[in-house]
């Protein structure tokens, strides 16, 4: 029997785990409440990356809650405990945003104070979703600000599928949308934190998605380099975009280009994180602390 590999962090708080039924699925949701002795500052709805689940955000979410921010996280359709086994990877563009609309509306409706601050965060695939939501999202006017890390705009050349495979994806998607393929992402690209890297290796042995999932998330990211599309980014939603300079999964150059395409009226900050790899919120202590400080400063300022 393989020895259990624990996460490299001991949480102060205890998250609330619930099932939320919607559109044929039972979504696993995780909420990190603000301690009673801490001033409440607002709520964050967080959108995870490809094949991620809530456990890898334990340190980030726990520490955010200790700073006064409640975090709501859900395993997306096609991922985690929401879609185990044969359901893994089964999602598409419509459901990605329809599910997010539902979760945001549910959280907005639960507010006791309608002036409560509401933030949207995301990483990698989830970062691309969050950026697009600030452009076309149904409830974007209720969002105070957006922060993302290593968003999927385009893949880094070291991870990008060859041009023939990329051009064939739409064709394969039309023929066999639920065909599953291994992303073959390299664990060393994810983080330099050995504790988190070992945990991911032990628990996420294969990072698998469907052809439709890959096709939609690549097309979604590429839209973010369209001036016509980015011109619709809401002028009332400030943006913090962090990207590791050593990210070999998503291309930092594309993140920088996306920010440059935003209208001048948008309050925006692009932060290249020196030596940071792909997953900044599970990076080594020095990088994590720097990134965490940047995020909390941004949230506190809005």
UniProtKB/TrEMBL annotation:
Segments traversing the membrane: none
Pfam families: Hydrolase_4
Coiled coil: none
Taxonomic superkingdom: Eukaryota
Domain Serine aminopeptidase S33: 40-285
InterPro entries in the record: AB_hydrolase_1, AB_hydrolase_fold, Hydrolase_4, MAG_DAG_Lipase
Protein name per its UniProtKB record: Serine aminopeptidase S33 domain-containing protein
Lineage: Eukaryota, Fungi, Dikarya, Ascomycota, Saccharomycotina
